[in-house]
Structures are given as structure tokens and as C-alpha cells.
Design a protein that fits this description.
It contains twelve helices and twelve strands. With about 400 residues, the chain is mainly alpha-helical. The strands form five sheets. The chain has a three-stranded parallel β-sheet. Strand 5 and strand 6 (about 310-315) form a beta hairpin. The model is unreliable at about 375-405 (pLDDT under 50).
């Protein structure tokens, strides 16, 4: 109606302070309260992330002063930061490398997915993806993680270089399997599940069920059309990832470090709202939906390897990560959610208000420019990934390839 704006108003107030707010956003349907903390906030810039991005760009745009080698992975680039207090310096020393490493690791994962595609391997989030990640790190002298996890990564890089001369195809054919360290598992979980700072949020990749698993699902549920099964399975996987329910090998403690509000999902009562919507939108009978729920959890999830009570978790061998940088995506005009294929089962999506978003659309360029640049550099034979800010020290001296606070 012209001249009017649609406004949503909560019907219940908080008992403690009388604040009227929504339990779930009426548009995107996401929770507004997590762990007792209200997620609704103003648009003021907060935290060190914007500052870290500025420093990172300044660092990348510097002219290289030394040749690329293992001792100088940043080609001699340096950044000297000044602070007016020790607390601020300590906070920068903690937060800057964390933010920079996340961005750099995202670039490394994009390059790893391209390496697997180049040799005709499926991008399954298991040991093969980690092997491709090791190749990227060895080729570009990247040192991710800390402590024992970094030592494990560097040892894997050394093995791939010494035994296979950085030939990923030969290493995989020979059965070489490196065990992903905990930090890599945490980073991968964030890059495929975080709704804001992941490769999925950047519209660079999509996570889909493996074809072999879908075939098994079709055999077990012959009453449901194969196309509907595939659509429901993919939407359910996204729902599980939204709840950070991936990787049975990751301990509950490590999962809480990345996602402190994680809640275990169980077969009996997990994601009830999702399956209620499936029943409503697909017109399937209640018994069929219950059967579908049980088979999805049986085929795609496992309990945690450790004794931690982490509920059911998606397994890496049941999924595949598909590159989608050059694809035309679809965006819901109500909630802003972007998806590769419009689906009636996706969380919070109003399928009657979908618009296409081609790669050259301003919205998509804002999301995809970084992943596209990584692939463009790789195809040109240039160095695709830079590990800026590999070490940050609270000191007043300059060392090799360090950002000094």
C-alpha cells in the first residue's frame, strides 16, 4: 500500500527490564538472543575488525622489498603500529593476528578447493581438503595456527614437499593422508557455518549432500520424489550448519571456543521447527516426515568421536563443497538471504520475493571480490595467498615479516 511502511511489533515484553523484543527476527527468523546476550545492536563500528582490515589492506598494498621465500613469506612488507597505552597494545596484539589469519585462511581454502578441482577430485571436507590446504601452505610458505597445531601443519608441508615434490595428485593416489589439526577443523567449521564471516556468507561456495548419499536416501524413501528429497536434504544440511553441528572429530571444548552458544542437536527433537515447515510446505504425511528425519540423521550424521555430549554432527564424507563464485545467485528481498538455487525449504526465505543476483551485481561484487581475486591470481600463476600478520609482538623492534605493535 502506497504511503505506508510495514512495521513488526513484539507482543511480549521481557520480565526483567520490560524491554519488548522478538525471540526470533520476524524477517530472517534467526534468534535475537543467544546465551543471555541480545544480538540486536546499533550500526556503530565496534571491535578491532575494521581496524584489522585497514591494516591488512595497507600491508598488502606495500611494495615488496625482498624475494618470496620461506624466510620472507610477506616479501619484506612491514607495518609498525603505535598505541597510547599498554592495554590497547595488548588488545591489538591479541586481536589483529586473529582477524588477519581468518581472512588469510579463507583465501587459502579457496585456493585449496581450486587445487582439488584441477585434479578432478571432489571437494569433500575431509583429509583430501586438508591435503590441498597443506599444498597451498607449502607452495606459498604460509604458517597458520599456533603451538602444536602449527608444528603439525609445517611437518605435513615438509612431508608433501620431500616425498611428493608438492604433487597433490600423486600424493592422493599414493594414499597419503595427513590428519587435520584441531585449529584447522575449527577454521573449516567457521568457514562453512558462520552466517556472517564464512565462504558461504561470501557467496563463494555452497555445501551440498554427496550424490552417493542422496542415492541411498532415495532408496530408503521411495515414496518421496527424488527432486523433493534433494531439496529437503540440502536445506536440512544448511540448518544443521546454522547450528554449527558439523565434524564429529571436533571436541565439545574446541567447538565452544569458536561458537560459545552451541547447543547439541538430537534425532528425537532436533530442529523441530524445520521439519514442521517441511511437513507444511511439502504436504507430506507426518509418518513420512518422521521417517525422513530418521534417515537424514542416520545417513549424514554421527555422534561425537569423544565422550562429549555434542549430539548428532554432520560428517565430512557425506558433504561436498562446490565453488559458486561465477554462478547467478538468488536473493530474498524480505530477509536478504542469498542462495544458489531458490528453495521453499530454506530458513526464512520468501520464495515469492526472489530476485537474481548475477556476478556483476553490486551486492555480489561486494561479497565475492576477495575470493574472485584469489582465483584470478592463481590462474595467472601469481601468488594467490598472503599470510599477513603472521606474528604480532608487543615490542618496539622490527623483525622479519612481522607486524609490530
Amino acid at each position: 500500500m502506497d504511503g505506508f511502511r510495514l512495521v513488526y511489533r513484539p507482543t511480549q515484553a521481557d520480565e526483567d527490564d520490560g524491554l519488548s523484543t522478538f525471540t526470533n527476527c520476524p524477517v530472517c527468523t534467526r534468534r535475537t538472543n543467544a546465551g543471555g546476550s541480545l544480538k540486536i545492536m546499533d550500526l556503530a563500528t565496534k571491535g578491532e575488525q575494521p581496524f584489522a582490515n585497514l591494516i591488512r589492506e595497507q600491508f598488502v598494498n606495500q611494495v615488496a622489498t625482498k624475494p618470496l621465500d620461506e624466510r620472507h613469506p610477506n616479501e619484506g612488507r612491514k607495518a609498525l603500529l603505535f598505541s597510547d597505552g599498554q592495554q590497547k597494545a595488548a588488545r591489538l596484539a591479541r586481536d589483529l593476528p586473529r582477524e588477519v589469519e581468518r581472512d588469510s585462511l579463507r583465501e587459502a581454502l579457496i585456493a585449496a578447493l581450486k587445487e582439488l578441482a584441477d585434479i578432478g577430485k571432489d571437494s569433500v571436507p575431509d583429509e583430501n581438503l586438508y591435503a590441498a590446504f597443506v599444498l597451498v601452505c607449502a607452495r606459498h610458505h604460509l604458517h597458520f595456527f599456533d603451538g602444536q597445531d602449527q608444528k603439525a601443519l609445517l611437518e605435513d608441508c615438509h612431508r608433501l614437499q620431500k616425498d611428493y615434490d608438492l604433487d597433490l595428485d600423486l600424493a592422493l593416489q599414493d594414499g597419503w593422508k595427513a590428519t587435520p589439526p584441531t585449529c584447522f577443523r575449527q577454521a573449516l567449521l567457521r568457514q562453512i557455518s558462520d552466517p556472517y564471516y564464512s565462504l558461504i556468507a561470501a557467496c563463494a561456495v555452497v555445501v551440498q549432500p554427496r550424490r552417493s548419499k542422496l542415492k541411498l536416501l532415495e532408496r530408503r524413501l521411495t515414496a518421496v520424489p527424488a527432486e523433493t528429497l534433494g531439496e529437503i536434504a540440502e536445506a536440512w544440511i544448511h540448518e544443521m550448519l546454522y547450528h554449527d553441528a558439523f565434524d564429529p572429530s571436533l571436541s565439545l571444548t574446541a567447538r565452544y571456543q569458536e561458537f560459545p552458544y552451541f547447543e547439541p542437536i538430537r534425532v528425537e527433537d532436533g530442529v523441530k521447527t524445520f521439519f514442521a515447515e517441511v511437513a507444511k510446505r511439502s504436504q507430506l504425511e507426518a509418518d513420512t516426515v518422521k521417517h525422513l528425519r530418521n534417515e537424514l540423521f542416520d545417513l549424514f550424521t554421527r555422534a561425537a568421536v569423544s565422550t562429549d555430549d555434542s549430539g548428532r554432527l554432520l560428517t565430512g564424507d557425506a558433504l561436498t563443497i562446490k565453488m559458486a563464485i561465477g554462478e547467478v545467485w538468488s536473493q530474498c528481498l524480505f530477509c536478504g538471504y542469498a542462495q544458489l538455487k531458490p528453495s521453499r525449504f530454506m530458513r526464512g526465505v520468501w520464495t515469492e520475493a526472489i530476485e537474481p543476483r548475477p556476478p556483476d551485481h553490486p551486492y555480489m561484487r561486494a561479497r565475492k571480490d576477495l575470493p574472485c581475486d584469489v582465483l584470478r591470481l592463481k590462474e595467472m600463476g601469481c601468488r594467490a595467498v598472503k599470510c599477513e600478520g603472521r606474528e604480532v609482538m608487543v615490542t618496539t623492534t622490527l623483525e622479519n615479516d612481522e607486524i609490530v605493535v
